[in-house]
Amino acid sequence: MPEWMEPDFLRQANLNIWSAVLCGGLIGAERQLRGKRVGLRVCMLIVLTSAMFVTMAVEIAPDGGNRVLSGIVSGVGFLGAGVIFAQNGRVSGITTATLIWSLAAIGACIGFGYPIAAILATLVIMAILGLVDFLESHLPRLGKEHDDSNSA
């Protein structure tokens, strides 16, 4: 029987796939509900593909995970850079770019066999995203530039 059909591998792959879908889905749902550019589908796909790249690399060559992880970090960094925009002196998309990188890290964590750590990281990321939105809407902006054109 091929190794990829062994019960242990199938069990691990199943756990990895559904952990990735859960983690990506939780963060994606939060982003989708807030009307952000990266929503449910994209979040789930980033976590799932990262998890599967690492799972297969580790399965094929036990030391192969490091090389794949390096590729994921670089590739997803490039993907994240594509969502950062500068317009009229304002930069937007930094949170989205960072989130894309975080999603890939969650997927890699799952792929290396640490789904509980990935779920905990997912919950922390969701708390950070929610807390920052709350703070930004309830606290005055510190260091905000004021328009002094009307003052004498």
From TrEMBL:
Q: Which residues form the MgtC/SapB/SrpB/YhiD N-terminal domain?
A: 19-137
**Pfam families documented for this protein:** MgtC
The alphabetized UniProt keywords are: Cell inner membrane, Cell membrane, Membrane, Transmembrane, Transmembrane helix
- Bilayer topology: Multi-pass membrane protein
**Principal location:** membrane
Q: Which domain of life is it from?
A: Bacteria
Q: Which GO terms describe its cellular component?
A: plasma membrane
Cell compartments where the protein resides: Cell inner membrane; Cell membrane
Locate the transmembrane regions by residue number: 12-30, 42-62, 68-87, 99-132
State the InterPro entries in the record. MgtC/SapB/SrpB/YhiD_fam, MgtC_SapB_SrpB_YhiD_N
Task: Tell me which family the UniProt entry assigns to this protein.
Answer: Belongs to the MgtC/SapB family.
Return the PANTHER family for the record: MAGNESIUM TRANSPORTER YHID-RELATED (PTHR33778:SF1), PROTEIN MGTC (PTHR33778)
> What is the name of the protein in this document?
Protein MgtC
